[in-house]
GMP synthase [glutamine-hydrolyzing] (Candidatus Erwinia haradaeae), 526 residues
Amino acid sequence: MLPQKIYTSRILILDFGSQYTQLLARCIRGIGVYCKLLAWHASEKEIREFNPNGIILSGGPESSISHNSPRVVNYIFHAGVPILGICYGMQVMAVQLGGTVQSSNKREFGSAQITVTKNSPLLPPIFHNTNTDKKIVMDVWMSHSDHVSQIPSDFIAIAHTEKCPVVIMTNETKRFYGVQFHPEVTHTPQGLSLIKQFVQIICQCKALWTTKNIIDDIIKDIKNQIATERVMLGLSGGVDSLVTALLLHHAIGDRLICIFIDNGLLRLGEANHLTTMFSNCFSLNIIHIKAEKRFLDALIGVQEPEAKRKTIGRVFIEIFEEEAVRIGNVQWLAQGTIYSDVIESGITSTSQTHIIKSHHNVGGLPKKMRLKLLEPLKTLFKDEVREIGLKLGLSNSILYQHPFPGPGLSIRVLGEVKKEYCDLLRSADSILIEELHKANLYKKINQAFTVFLPIRSVSVIGDNRKYDWVIAIRAVETTDFMTAQWTNLPHEFLRTVSNRIINEIHSISRVVYDISSKPPATIEWE
Ligand code: XMP
């Protein structure tokens, strides 16, 4: 059921749970080809329905030798489309097609040089480097302990390393390929070219997945779906909801009604800045609801982080419902759900993800509201959303802002949330962010914020002894927000921020810096 033009060339990735699977999907999208992730146990029916031009079997953490390790449905080997197996994906292909995999104590992890003994359409045209023995070599990134020891009878091995006898295996007639290394990571310099060879040359996919085509397609789709009806959208100020708003506005104009709920848990000046800018510059129809008191009242006595999230979610829904009734004649609710939210909520993945914090309400909001759900970004990755935002006129400062959690400052004020604490935290946070911009550090880190600790500590200012609150600074570097390193911010910078916070905010006596990485510590404190 994918009639549109931009979807006509498409690759299916069957995911065995590798940490690089989303990266792989991004590589393919970056080449201009649509791809979708399904869990490794996808059924023949699902695969037939998607009707891919080629299939990639991802890497994964399991050993294909162990009892009950994952296998793909045999149908894919008879579907008549090219297949590329990567790492575990190659091993599983070997085993299912009659070869053997062996465990070895010679693990290969990190950079390696492979020797190529025969050419193949899979190999990029520029791969011909030679080493001192005049052998053709290629630098790659390996991460495995098992290896294919015997290839299926109709395959040939065309590359090896000293430790691994089969690094690339091919069956050119069937267009089946296996690579033991990871072409999707940048440490394999010719990896992207290899993926291009597979997608464009072997699978014959066309580069239709471009930002302009995606925008045109989404707008056309929204127009068809919505016809003359009206849509409500909760505008949070984050990139995803803003891009959703702009696309909808292009498609249906004023029949989009944006609801911006100021819950009193936003950053300094955020609510006014956003609502003014989006109604003035983008002519969006925005209803600005000031609901600080309602949220803070609902949070009285609520200490536990998950309970805070649930309370805030509940009040949001209540306000939405009231607005829907008040506005009347609204049939749709739009949400800025993106592809990573869908994957992380376990809908497509191997469902091994454990819910540590109840983050994203994928499909959660509208149940009670009996509105139809519209999620125009749900096949897109974050960087695709940013590219669309850029084309539609959003500034880099909005597109590349650090993420801000839905429950806002409520999970950065530890324990019970009070207006006084939120106000102090807002001031501290704005100092930190201002200084990060001044020092040209904002773009170099992925997320930075302050946390309010409801404990008192002693300070002496002049001759006066004070007994005041503590602020923690958190700054992390991360690619996927699933793991993160604390940032080694310059001491001079920390000194400036700490001095400013203590001098400019009277009830703060002390500033501390969080030096915990994730895991085990999460990025937010709650
Ligand atoms: P953690 O704290 O789980 O955060 O390491 C990872 C990323 O998710 C953000 N985060 C949230 N975002 N609702 C959100 O919309 C939430 O409840 C929530 N909790 C954490 C966090 O800011 C970081 O970017």
About this structure: The first helix runs from residue 21 to 31. The pocket of xanthosine-5'-monophosphate is lined by residues 309, 357, 359, 403, 405-407, 447, 481, 518, 522-524 (CB under 6 Å). The chain has 14 helices and 19 strands. Residues 347-364 have pLDDT under 50 and may be disordered.
